[in-house]
Write a structure and sequence with these properties.
CATH superfamily of the largest domain: Nucleotide-binding domain of ferredoxin-NADP reductase (FNR) module
Oligomer: single chain
Radius of gyration: 18 Å
Shape: globular
Mean pLDDT: 88
CATH class of the largest domain: Alpha Beta
Helix content: 10-25%
Distance between the termini: 21 Å
CATH architecture of the largest domain: 3-Layer(aba) Sandwich
């Protein structure tokens, strides 16, 4: 465990009334939301998360908020952005948010990404890139390369948004309709030098493929594990995963694991 990856928060987790500054669809099922929070935005660290409550008021329908990693933050403007996939009632309601709407947001929670100076390659499938965006923007000198795989035609808008934030991103589309080809594994470094790491996040098939790609160097491949968080405080135990050193809560204990720390994790 890295020195900051502990079951604690330096700031109190609270609910805030925030105002939407931008909300729009990048694709048919992928949305981008930016809201103003002068209290949270200056405190954001790469890897932090927020929980957005779908109702535009402080009502209880739906009861539970939806947790998302923070894709970008601007302390000067007091703004936080998330990128999310529409998957049900809650996210469908969120997609109806418009500039000026007041929403309820809980935060900050989630374990920040490790703050170390290794040469990191970032590999992601789809919106899995969101958790790494702010880190790459804050520490460009630590980034060895960014690789993003998407389904293909119909995802041009999402790809363009990522490129606007990280212009050097190498794009790959499953159908080969744009980008550099249909698979990042043709160009993703196969053998990592000492001090190099790969941080990966994405759907189960993608994580399984990248674990196979680095089967000989599992200690240098780090994966973001995802489970639905119900509270964000570590109390509900809904996001517990089994590791070689015991059970870990993704919201407060650890969220980025070397591949050999979670050998039995079901991708």
């Amino acid at each position: 465990m890295h020195e900051h990856e502990c079951a604690c928060h330096t700031e109190k987790i609270d609910d805030y009334a925030c105002v939407v500054t931008n909300s729009y669809m990048l694709e048919e099922n992928i949305a981008w939301l930016t809201f103003k929070s002068d209290k949270m935005a200056p405190l954001v660290r790469p890897g932090n998360c927020v929980m957005v409550f779908p109702s535009s008021s402080f009502s209880s329908d739906p009861l539970l908020g939806r947790p998302f990693s923070i894709a970008d933050a601007d302390a000067g403007k007091g703004e936080i952005s998330i990128c999310y996939v529409l998957r049900g009632k809650g996210t469908s309601m969120m997609s109806k948010f418009r500039a000026g709407d007041e929403i309820r947001v809980r935060g900050l929670f989630g374990v920040p990404l490790p703050d170390r100076g290794t040469n990191v390659y970032f590999a992601a499938g789809g919106v899995g890139i969101a958790i790494f965006l702010y880190y790459c923007r804050m520490f460009p000198d630590r980034v060895g390369g960014v690789y993003l795989g998407v389904r293909g035609k119909g995802y041009e808008g999402f790809a363009a948004k990522i490129l606007s934030l990280l212009p050097g991103t190498r794009l790959f589309a499953d159908d080969g309709s744009f980008g550099e080809g249909d698979s990042m594994f043709a160009v993703l470094p196969k053998q990592l030098a000492e001090g190099e790491e790969v941080w990966a996040c994405g759907p189960p098939g993608f994580i399984g493929a990248i674990r196979s790609h680095y089967a000989s160097q599992p200690g240098q491949l780090y994966v973001m594990l995802e489970k639905r968080m119900a509270c964000g405080y570590g109390g509900c135990l809904g996001c517990v995963v089994e590791t070689k050193t015991g059970l870990k809560r993704l919201c407060v204990d650890q969220s980025l694991f070397s591949s050999d720390e979670v050998p039995d994790y079901e991708c």
